[in-house]
Amino acid sequence: MQIVISPAKLMDFEGSIPAVKTTAPLFPEKTATLVEICRQLSEREIVAKMKVNATIAHHVYEYFQTFDFENTPRRAAALAYNGIAYKGLNAADFSQEDYDFARQHFNILSALYGILRPFDEIKPYRLEMHRKIVPAGFKSLYDYWEDSLNEYLGRKLKKDDKIVIDVSSSEYGRILNPTKLPKETRIISMNFLQHQANDLKQIVVHTKKARGMLSRFIIKNKIYRLEDVKAFDSEGYFFYPKLSSSNEWFFVR
């Protein structure tokens, strides 16, 4: 079973974290190519291409200009990302057994790094998969990363049960290509709804946190059997069979 999750725009390289052995990202040359492209952008171009305000553009410009400096901060990916999903994951309190399981089963999709293991060492950056910042010869960042990412994930699936638990956003999840993964691979999309006013609604902030919490549930409980994922019950969620299908599951609270 392989979990895939989106990265987060928010990152933290200053707060205290537990000591953990980091690993090098898998595709340094491809990342370096993107860093060099981003380094050529002016702050005004960053505003236009990344759809951010001038203050954020200033920080992004700094990230890429200083990316290769020795004193540039770096941190394990699962501890650096600081968005809502990663609050739900809460990797800072993982035991050694949790770390070991996560290294084998937890994968972070990234526009700059392609795919990250949870404790790959990363640096501050901002780059979203759908942005039109692409090396020559490629139509998009999806095109740039598709082969490398799916080939790596495919190798892991061949050693596993050929099941992908997809808790990523649609922006990132669309890079998963079943035709490039092992035959009979199942990609199961996880959805989270809230019961409000006699209706079931998806609320983005709650969905993001639930993605991290479900990942945490699998890691903390060392789940290998797919059916056992249905036992997820953090913060009142429960599996909702009426809405679920074979490859699209719903949890409701």
Descriptive account of the structure:
- This protein has one domain.
- 36% of the residues lie in helices and 16% in strands.
- The protein is built from 9 helices and 10 strands.
- Helix 2 packs across helix 3.
- It is globular and about 50 Å long.
What structural keywords apply?
253 residues; 10 strands; single chain; two-stranded antiparallel sheet; 36% helix; alpha/beta; 9 helices; eight-stranded mixed sheet
- Backbone structural class: alpha/beta
DSSP summary, beta strand count: 10
What is the string of SSEs from the N terminus onward?
EHHHEHHHEEEHEHEEHEE
Helical stretch count? 9
User: Into how many domains do the coordinates divide?
Assistant: 1
In terms of per-residue confidence, which ranges show pLDDT below 50 for 5 or more consecutive residues? none
Broad shape: globular
Biggest sheet statistics: 8 strands, mixed
CA-CA gap between termini = 25 Å
Q: Roughly how many Å is the radius of gyration?
A: 18 Å
Proportion of helical residues: 25-40%
Strand content: 15-25%
Q: Which whole number gives the mean pLDDT?
A: 96
Give a concise summary.
Helices cover 36% and strands 16% of the residues.
SSE inventory with pairings:
Blueprint: E1 2-5, H1 28-39, H2 43-50, H3 54-65, E2 75-76, H4 77-80, H5 84-89, H6 96-105, E3 106-110, E4 114-116, E5 121-122, H7 141-158, E6 163-166, H8 170-173, E7 186-196, E8 199-201, H9 204-220, E9 238-239, E10 248-252
Parallel strand pairs: 1-3, 1-6, 6-7, 7-10
Antiparallel strand pairs: 2-5, 3-4, 7-8, 9-10
Helix pairs in contact: 2-3
